[in-house]
Amino acid sequence: MTEPLLVVESLDAGYGDFQALFGIDLHVAEAETVSIIGANGAGKTTLLRSIVGLVQPMRGDVRYDGRSIAATPVYKRVADGIALVPEGRRIFPSLTVEENIVIGGDVGRPGPWTKQRVLEAFPLLNRLLRRNGEGLSGGERQTLAIARALMSNPRLLLLDEVSLGLAPIVVRQVYEAVPLIKSQGTTVLIVEQDVNQALAVADRFYCLLEGRIALTGVPREVSKEQITEAYFGMSGRSH
């Protein structure tokens, strides 16, 4: 049996003396969309930062495409096909939308995502190509951040808090692109507080509670009551 594209095994991680993750085990198969849900402070962002190499594990391992990458530098993980859209978007505000998009392709990885393909996936960017990043709305910045990440032709796309600070209609527009991204063969791992949006696009999900996995499963096979109990740490939650 082929190993999943991403495997996180017995992962402990944190910052200095502060431990944010405890014994995390998860996997993501090729071309699968998996959502990580949980309240603020549950450890979701730390998990993504550990996968991309911005946080070094205290214990455990991260395997990508069948090999350990726990000691692999961030830039090599990007070159190998891991792209992160961080919380807060972090586009280049002094560059135009077009320049932000083009710079995402500097990695030089072959694949389906080109400037033209990205603009077809996110048509609202077409009218903004000459506008500087600092003049964009939150939704436009989020869309641009995803487009820029896709330009690196990632095998694994990490999306951190896609909906944070965005109006519901903008969130829906951003999430409408996820099935298209998946259709191009890209594996997607989404960290999200908006449970409904996260579960609507996910093949599977993990719910984090205080740095531990409280629940995992297929969205349609898990009740709202089970998810609520795991999300908030109520008694009687399922594992």
How would you describe this structure to a colleague?
It is globular and about 50 Å long. The chain is an alpha/beta fold and 239 residues long. The relative contact order is 0.18. It contains 9 helices and 10 strands. The chain has a 6-stranded mixed sheet, sandwiched between helices. The protein has a 4-stranded antiparallel sheet with strand order 2-1-4-5, covered by helices on one side.
Brief rundown of the structure:
The chain has 9 helices and 10 strands. The chain has 239 residues and is of the alpha/beta class.
* Helix percentage: 25-40%
> Distance between the terminal alpha carbons, to the nearest Å?
25 Å
**Radius of gyration, taken over Cα atoms and rounded to an integer in Å:** 17 Å
Shape: globular
- Give the H and E element order: EEEHEEHEHHHEHHEHEEH
Can you count the beta strands? Answer: 10
Strand order of the largest sheet: 6-7-8-3-9-10
The fraction of residues assigned to DSSP E strands is 25-35%
Which regions have little confidence, pLDDT < 50, spanning 5+ residues? none
**SS-based structural class?**
alpha/beta
Number of helices: 9
Overall residue-averaged pLDDT value: 92
Biggest β-sheet description? 6 strands, mixed
